[in-house]
Amino acid sequence: MKSSRTVAIAGLAAIAMVGSLAACSAGASSESGKTELRVATFPPGADEAAYTAFAEQEKQFEAEHEDIDIIGVEYEWEGPTFAVQLAGGSLPDVFTVPFTDAKTLLENGQLMDVTDEIDELGYTDKFNPIILDAVKDGDRIYGFPRQAYAMGLHYNRTLFEAAGLDPDSPPTTWDEVREAAKAISEQTGKAGFMEMTQNNTGGWQLTAATVARGGSIQEDNGDGTYTSTIANDATASALEFLQALRWEDDSLGSNMLLDWGTINQEFAAGNIGMYSSGSDVYTALVRDFSLNPDDYGLTVVPVENGGGTLGGGDIAVVSPTVDDTTKAAAVTWIDWYYMQKLLDEDAAVLDAKTLAESDQAVGTPVLPVLDRETYEESLTWIEPYINVPREQMTPFIDGVWEQTPVGEPKSKTQEIYALLDTVVQAVLTDRNADIDTLLAQADLDAQALLDQ
Amino acid sequence: MTLTAKPPAMPSADEPGPPAASARPKRTRNPRTWVRGGGLSTLVFLAPMLVVFGFFSWSPIVQSVIMSLQKTNLLDPPTWVGLDNFANVLSDPLLGTAVVNTLYFAGLALVLGFPLPIIMAVLMSEVRRGKGFYSALAYLPVVIPPVVAVLLWKVFFDASPTGLFNTILGWVGIPPQPWLQSPATAMPSLVLEATWAAAGGSIIIYLAALLSVPPELYDAAEVDGASIWRKIWHVTLPQLRGILFIMLILQIIGTAQVFLEPYLFTGGGPNNATVTILLLIYRYAFQNSLGGDYGEATALSVMLAVVLALLSWLYFKLTERWSS
Lengths: 452, 324
Prior knowledge:
- The complex is a heterodimer of chains A (452) and B (324).
- With 452 residues, chain A is an alpha/beta fold.
- Chain A has two domains: 188 residues, 3-Layer(aba) Sandwich (D-Maltodextrin-Binding Protein, domain 2), CATH 3.40.190; 201 residues, D-Maltodextrin-Binding Protein, domain 2.
- Chain A contains 18 helices and 13 strands.
- In chain A, the strands form four sheets. In chain A, strands 3, 6, 7, 10, 11, 12 and 13 form a seven-stranded mixed beta sheet that branches.
- In chain A, a hairpin with a 5-residue loop joins strand 8 and strand 9.
- Chain B has 324 residues and is an all-alpha fold.
- Chain B has one domain: MetI-like fold (Orthogonal Bundle).
- In chain B, 69% of the residues lie in helices and 1% in strands.
- Chain B has 14 helices and two strands; from the N terminus they run H-H-E-E-H-H-H-H-H-H-H-H-H-H-H-H.
- The longest helix of chain B is centred in the C-terminal third of the chain and has 30 residues.
- At the A-B interface, helix 1, helix 3, helix 4 and helix 17 of A face helix 2 and helix 13 of B.
């Protein structure tokens, strides 16, 4: 009988194994009959108070919409995570995507069409057309622009003072930026200025620096084709600026491999005098990187030769895999959570009050996604709750309206940014890097991508 | 996925078989004798393993090969594109750089990382007291989670004069080095950390292998008046050759797939000095295309797998004679 017992044991083992595998694939379903909506909240490591504020907002929303059950999901926009979550079916139903990646998602057909919903809500004509353009493919719209920014020059007021500079009159030209950077690094031993170089942020910032100097890295031929114009004087001048700071002044510190997250970390830790990034980064600096608000200063990026400020922002989108009921719930949430506070006084006040009560940033300078008047009016509604040090951001708040916002390059944006990362890194890590040769090569490679 | 425990097709007893060469009684094999002989229980015992391997290992491999011939956005049904993905990968100007960088990493790791554990193991085997302590010390880096180790070394590699390694170099009068911050020194820096992280595991294996060397051989060599170096050269190394060959091919395969170090230390920079083949695969799949170039990523993976399989086969063919 030994063999039959052996078979029985083995059989049981096999059944247990198959059973546990099958259990893995069982999905959760709503028992309450409500529509479960999984919405993006904050990046991992966010301040606990942010979640307290979110829980309060969740309660407010669910009281108004009893048929929807909101489930907050920890979320940070990361390309790799997006692809894996999309493939694995675990993408939140509502999440946000930066403009710059939205173009790639559009090209890939990975965004949900929300044209009819935006029409129904009556927003189509209210959006700033330059901003709406980032989420349009033909005349179809694939997301709600919910926040926009202009490029800003963020600086550490404490380091400015330590270097004998006046934090209330930050640099207004690139030459002054260079002088200030030199003074900071000489007086404090910290990096006077720093530039992002990794994970496509090097290309993003080089493009911003090009735009600020009146150049552009890509031309739209209007017939669906694009011409790379990377080898232009403005880009060369932006790189020469970095080269001088790195090799002549030695004012860029010692770490040349930084991206959006790590440069914020270094800045919040007080290791960087100045850097260029989106004007809305203050919220993340305080919430995710524990910046001391007293250190913070913000001014506009210097523009010359008729240049502008590179704009960006992010859009709230609906997962491309959801069914119609979830899509409707998702649009209701986006409208309530992201849009109403831009338009409606009561919603704006409620949002600001809830955030302020949990010590979350209220009043970070942004660019209006609707129109300037609505934006400025909304600031008067929430004035009692504004808790960001706007007086330390005066040079930006006053100066940004003088600058022309410019959109990001339209085609193969991320792949071209990746090419430019290499160029920026070469200039910062190789003393003998030849800027013209590097740009000529990058131009060729970019054109090859555009011609694909 | 269903698995039916179907017995393999066997010629039944009444089928005309080849004429028996001898008068030995012919053993009849039919499903009943197969079950009685333990065939079924073997298969049932194997089933969980087959399911797990099939589901988690073989099916992804087959799917990768299929995906390398398709274009997908991870949403709509994929479309067949023939060998387009392979052509795109082969025409990528970065592929050459990635191959050269990977070979450079593998070469440096071989020069630095292969002999070091052997030397350490031989030295440690000579230690009379506290062998366990030294083994634990050597193995410690393997216990540290790789990501933590890399982040720690990132601090050590700080290129400012106050960085840990630069401070130590300063004590002996060597000027500060750029470590990860220069295309010339980035890859050797990566190899340094990789060697530190991996040596412990190899040392333990070599130490175990050294125990199997018969002590009489050393005694005989000593009677012949051999010095310690001659004993190592003529007794230890030849006795270890089987394990040396295996460790060498494992290291070559491992270093050809290096990803963690370049990804976490440098992201492939500076100036593409540390872009390796696996990092390129990762970039295709995720970084720029947001899932749009899975086909190209799998195409390059398939090419790498084929090259490594061929290399391993060739290696075993070439070393067959020496390792036996």
